[in-house]
């Protein structure tokens, strides 16, 4: 726990060392600010990310679990007794790091008290060092999740602002959703009390998850059959800040869209960074289509979850 007294500095040092040694590959992005329901929303474009190295393991072989035995050059610190911190190997944001469980636990299972306690320890430490952190969790087939081993991801807010020049002032979307119902998809937001206990954090999360399951049933959204009592029957994203916790049930990872010439492109895949107010694309056609027609962002957000009550009226 002692290493968390200066977590922002530790993350920066670890990231620079891993980048210098080639243990991680940073992918620069271009950025444009779009507007959705009156909120500034980042659109980022990383053409090089489309060429990210792919696994050369034989088809049908057991997938590699990057969190089972993390690479030494990416490992940051133990977070006793149940978690550790590790760098993202292919980041598009500086100092992108991950909180992973030491033992294998399913990404599709409900988060436990110690998961949220560890996550909020990271958020609190950044705040105590005069910085802000955004955390997100992807769970289920429609959430943008890519690894089955449980992990929560973190992006320093200052790093998320890299490249933004003038124009609308961008800030973390999740903090604004607590006071708004104007977004195109349904979400549940809870204020996080100062110095919240693990039990309080877990209760807030479980209450939002229960509401998401209930509205999924009411809207005839497919709830998949679970094989364990710990498993969530829905796909969802969870956004975490020092102030709020936001849960967004998902019904689609993202749609295809039409380009300026009418060609169908995509799909545009979204994960929990949408609750931070960001969206990443990997090719020029998607970048141009969204940057030149802001209404397409609303169209995308309309399709990824349960439509908000406002959109149904």
TrEMBL record:
Pfam families per the UniProt record, alphabetical:
Ap4A_phos_N, ATP_transf
Which residues does UniProt assign to the signal peptide? none
Q: Where is the Ap4A phosphorylase 1/2 N-terminal domain?
A: 6-161
Report domain ATP adenylyltransferase C-terminal positions. 182-307
PANTHER family the record matches: 5',5'''-P-1,P-4-TETRAPHOSPHATE PHOSPHORYLASE 2, AP-4-A PHOSPHORYLASE II
UniProt organism field:
Venustampulla echinocandica
Q: Name one GO molecular function term.
A: ATP:ADP adenylyltransferase activity
Q: Which InterPro entries match?
A: Ap4A_phos1/2 (IPR009163), Ap4A_phos1/2-like (IPR043171), Ap4A_phos1/2_N (IPR045759), ATP_adenylylTrfase_C (IPR019200), HIT-like_sf (IPR036265)
Q: Which GO terms describe its biological process?
A: nucleotide metabolic process
Query: What's the protein name?
Result: Uncharacterized protein
């Amino acid at each position: 726990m002692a290493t968390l007294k200066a977590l922002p500095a530790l993350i920066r040092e670890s990231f620079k060392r891993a980048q210098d040694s080639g243990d991680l590959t940073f992918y620069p992005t271009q950025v444009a600010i779009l507007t959705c329901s009156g909120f500034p929303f980042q659109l980022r474009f990383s053409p090089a990310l489309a060429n990210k190295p792919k696994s050369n393991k034989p088809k049908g072989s057991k997938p590699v679990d990057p969190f089972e035995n993390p690479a030494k050059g990416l490992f940051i610190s133990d977070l006793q007794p149940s978690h550790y911190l590790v760098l993202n190997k292919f980041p598009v944001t500086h100092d992108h790091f991950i909180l992973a469980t030491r033992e294998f636990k399913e990404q599709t299972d409900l988060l436990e008290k110690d998961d949220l306690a560890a996550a909020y320890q990271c958020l609190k430490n950044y705040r105590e060092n005069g910085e802000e952190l955004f955390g997100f969790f992807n769970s289920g087939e429609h959430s943008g999740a890519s690894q089955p081993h449980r992990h929560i991801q973190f992006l320093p807010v200052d790093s998320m602002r890299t490249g933004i020049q003038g124009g609308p002032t961008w800030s973390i979307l999740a903090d604004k959703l607590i006071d708004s119902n104007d977004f195109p998809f349904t979400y549940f937001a809870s204020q996080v009390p100062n110095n919240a206990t693990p039990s309080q954090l877990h209760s807030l999360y479980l209450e939002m998850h229960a509401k998401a399951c209930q509205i999924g049933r009411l809207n005839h959204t497919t709830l998949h059959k679970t094989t364990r009592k710990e498993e969530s029957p829905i796909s969802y994203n969870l956004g975490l800040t020092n102030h709020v916790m936001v849960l967004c049930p998902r019904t689609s990872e993202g749609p295809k869209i039409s380009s300026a010439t009418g060609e169908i492109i995509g799909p545009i895949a979204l994960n929990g960074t949408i609750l931070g107010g960001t969206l990443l694309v990997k090719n020029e056609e998607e970048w141009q289509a969204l940057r030149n027609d802001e209404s397409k962002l609303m169209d995308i957000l309309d399709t990824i979850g349960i439509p908000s009550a406002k959109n149904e009226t």
